[in-house]
Inverse folding.
């Protein structure tokens, strides 16, 4: 009888809890550490909004992208808040799959006032805005930068400028390279993939004056700018890069750099924290930071841009409740909550708010790289990433649905040139053909 009474009481409590919840929202997110923290902090959200119940769907990135894309494209309405990347936001906004947030901020003046949209780093906000409407808010963001080993530079009598050029990087790499002792002048992504070597190489091509398409959607991958960039990349990596570079993506190069095997590495700003962590890096006291290099064509497009963002699918029936969660999880209040919960300001979601980088506690925790990361993100303009005009947005990608497949295919051709399986000219003829096929099949070319 006692057990029955307890069960009855528990059931009554559960029923009361459900009754108190005026709405239930389902949130789809990736299983990255920062998002797992967000899920764990749900009780803090419920303290502020006790009438909103929260359900979670947490999946690996590829599985999440497939599941959420199918759901929002079909209008099934399974999710009220979705985690989407910088690549997807402009595409989904154009397709009418996302609710514009600008009217919701206008409707909810109290939330808008405390949220402070103007605190979001301009480049980050700009990447999520289409035709004057904001379609997502950033959970965390990153750009790219140059990491270098100060001890190796000192030994070679070199000084890294705050803004290096690719020509300078080439010269530095040649002087540092010492394969007999397992030291290589530079590590760069060589692993094929739209988010691996194609992402990095596009920023390199940008600074050589290259672009994927002209304003008429005619492919430009066989242009003099792309040829110069790919010849430079292949020559640099063959002379000063590690062996087997076509197997090296972000993770592999991070390991090489953190073990003191690379003189320089150009990659995601998020690596700054890893290289400064004594539990995983042997170069904590010798790692240096600089801007991503610029080439001979233009300073534009040297810093890539990526973010994970929270958006509201158009198919939701809980728009107001979803908006409350979305603004809570990306607010200054939430960032401070993470710092308090983890006891470390370096653990907060990075790259989104000016106030984070102005915070003395964050500056102290993030050390030498916080200002540089903020500057890199600020300068990453997804709408002006190339020397000449283009019909697409994106720095290290082209914001069209077909780019995932196209970028990976072109990445394979780039890797073929790097490994010597094909010549640079052959690789770019193949890339040009593939890119034009996408433009024709997708009816981008008129």
């Amino acid at each position: 009888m006692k057990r029955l009474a307890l069960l009855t009481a528990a059931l009554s409590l559960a029923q009361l809890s459900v009754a108190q919840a005026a709405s239930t929202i389902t949130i789809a997110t990736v299983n990255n550490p920062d998002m797992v923290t967000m899920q764990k902090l749900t009780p803090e959200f419920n303290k502020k909004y006790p009438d909103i119940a929260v359900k979670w769907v947490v999946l690996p990135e590829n599985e999440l992208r497939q599941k959420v894309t199918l759901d929002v494209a079909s209008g099934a309405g399974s999710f009220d808040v979705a985690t989407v990347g910088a690549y997807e936001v402009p595409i989904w906004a154009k397709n009418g799959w996302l609710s514009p947030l600008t009217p919701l901020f206008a409707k909810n003046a109290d939330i808008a006032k405390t949220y402070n949209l103007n605190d979001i780093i301009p480049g980050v906000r700009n990447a999520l805005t289409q035709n004057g409407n904001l379609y997502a808010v950033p959970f965390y963001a990153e750009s790219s930068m140059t990491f270098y080993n100060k001890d190796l530079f000192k030994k070679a009598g070199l000084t890294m400028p705050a803004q290096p050029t690719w020509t300078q990087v080439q010269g530095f790499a040649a002087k540092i390279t010492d394969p007999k002792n397992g030291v290589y002048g530079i590590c760069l992504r060589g692993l094929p993939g739209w988010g691996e070597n194609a992402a990095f190489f596009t920023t390199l091509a940008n600074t050589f004056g290259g672009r994927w398409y002209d304003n008429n959607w005619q492919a430009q991958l066989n242009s003099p700018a792309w040829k110069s960039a790919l010849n430079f990349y292949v020559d640099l990596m063959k002379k000063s890069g590690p062996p087997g570079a076509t197997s090296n993506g972000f993770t592999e190069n991070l390991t090489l750099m953190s073990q003191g095997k690379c003189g320089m590495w150009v990659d995601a700003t998020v690596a700054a924290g890893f290289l400064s962590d004594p539990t995983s890096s042997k170069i904590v006291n010798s790692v240096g930071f600089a801007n991503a290099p610029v080439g001979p064509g233009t300073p534009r497009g040297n810093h890539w841009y990526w973010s994970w963002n929270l958006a509201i699918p158009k198919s939701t029936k809980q728009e107001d409740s979803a908006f409350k969660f979305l603004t809570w999880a990306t607010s200054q209040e939430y960032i401070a909550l993470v710092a308090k919960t983890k006891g470390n300001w370096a653990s907060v979601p990075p790259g989104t708010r000016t106030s984070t980088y102005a915070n003395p506690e964050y500056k102290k925790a993030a050390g030498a790289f916080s200002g540089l990361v903020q500057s890199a993100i600020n300068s990453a303009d997804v709408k002006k990433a190339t020397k000449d005009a283009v019909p697409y947005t994106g720095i290290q990608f082209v914001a069209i649905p077909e780019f995932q497949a196209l970028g990976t295919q072109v990445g394979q051709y780039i890797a073929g040139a790097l490994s010597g399986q094909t010549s640079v000219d052959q690789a770019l003829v193949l890339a040009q053909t593939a890119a034009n096929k996408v433009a024709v099949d997708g009816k981008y070319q008129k």
